[in-house]
Amino acid sequence: MSDHLSTRARLLTEIVRYIDEGNYERAGEGWSFGIGRGTSQRQANQDETVFRKMRRLVYDHVARTVAIERTSLASPPTVDSLAGEFKKLMDELTPETRETLGQALGPIAAGQDSLIAEAAPGAKSQLDALDRYYSKEILEKLDGIVSRASALERMGLEIVPNRRVQFLFEEAHRCYLYGFHLACAVFCRAILEGALKEVADPQSETNQSIHDMIALAVEKGILTADRPRCAREVAKAGNRAIHDPEMFDRDYSPEKVEEILANTRKVLEELYRLPS
User: What is the pTM of this model?
Assistant: First the structure.
């Protein structure tokens, strides 16, 4: 599939870049982005272009740090992580500017985080930093979301599942579309368990373990052909995701997670069909 199925992703990415650089303004009832860029950008000298890249690098570092401090148990990235990129950008500057700027960037190279924050006025507000970070993250996922959604076929169930199964189905697909593979597998297992309880074992004939309910569905002729195998694969993946997430991450590629979701959908179509 094309890497760029979303027209909006490309346009919004460009717009967000202008917002990050403060290069936008109100124009009547609308907004103008990239004001004065056209000719002036072409005429801008090499150093100005490099400085713009440096500012973007610093702002992105601050935004990433603010986000990670709130959502991760790992240590946030240090200023040292910028050293390689800064060196590449310094090499793009004219010799005179490089010499002048070297002294100013010395403390940053020494790892003084506070100077990074001071150098990024657009990121002083932590709310703005979070806005910057997550806007970029969502836009980076948008093409993949559109691509994965376009590959899904419409579900044509003959019987409407209960609200719990509907809710779990929607959550599993959100996780799949956004690339949250482990969560998708967990929800697929939950879908299977909920559907089996409703259709195959509503009277609690088993202890309602997922494998016992699969066996009962086979015994009753509810699951046929390859559907029992599909159900067992879903249960296996969900159990692995719950009990050994590291192994799941190693063993289940995005393609395998896609297969688990497809198997879940196949089993649902079998479970929620009208009796023949």
Answer: 0.82
